[in-house]
Amino acid sequence: MNVQPDAYSGSIAWTEFSQEEFVTLLEENVTGEITESEYEGTTLYTESESGQVTAYLGGGAVTFGSEDAVTDTIDLAAGNADPFSGEARSLYEETRDGPAQFVAQFPDIEEEMSGGQDGGGEMQFQGLLTQVTWVSGSFLYDAGDNNKGMTMNVRFDNEDAATQTQQFMTQLLQQYQAQLEQSQNESNQQLAETLSKMSASQNGRTVAISYEDTVENWAASIRSGAASAGGGPPAGG
Questions:
Q1: CB-hemisphere CA count at 13 Å for 178?
Q2: pLDDT tens-digit profile of 35-84?
Q3: Overall number of domains in the chain
Q4: Do both 92 and 74 map to the same domain?
Q5: What is the pTM of this model?
């Protein structure tokens, strides 16, 4: 599956960092070089390996993504551009309020068809991906009862593709959870508990994949995922 990397995409995050703290954090956590340029009085930081552009907007607000999305955000923050509209706007408004929200147009995808494949689940899922038009999401929003949530919304060009994807994701979560529950490994048991709190729901052409849990369980899930990394789903029995 070939993914074209030139899609327009951008995110805004609200942090407690000053610009100096933000730049230090960026330099410490990026592999490769960072080049600096300027747009309308705002410094752009471009990562050499990924090409991602980041800018500090002030007051802890940071925008990152493709260069055109970042410069559009700078224009908007300065009052020099109109807010985005259309499908991108409607999908963004469906995301939950949180410290990090995003919306992105999904890139065009071409399936690589090989004679050795039998048209099973993997190829079916690839076919559904070709019908994705937009994605959006929100991270660590307040889900109530001291819980935090994460949601990714996937919008398709037709409702049938959304229905198939929701059914596919629900079945996949259930199967993987059942396999993990059969394991005596503590990390796998924790991952099974995590999957039980994930869901895939559908609203028209949009599928929402959500996970809500306590902060403590978020941390435990991350540790369990790291411990199980590379192992794949456990064998049944």
A1: 8
A2: 999 999 999 999 988 889 999 999 999 999 889 989 999 998 888 877 66
A3: 2
A4: no
A5: 0.62
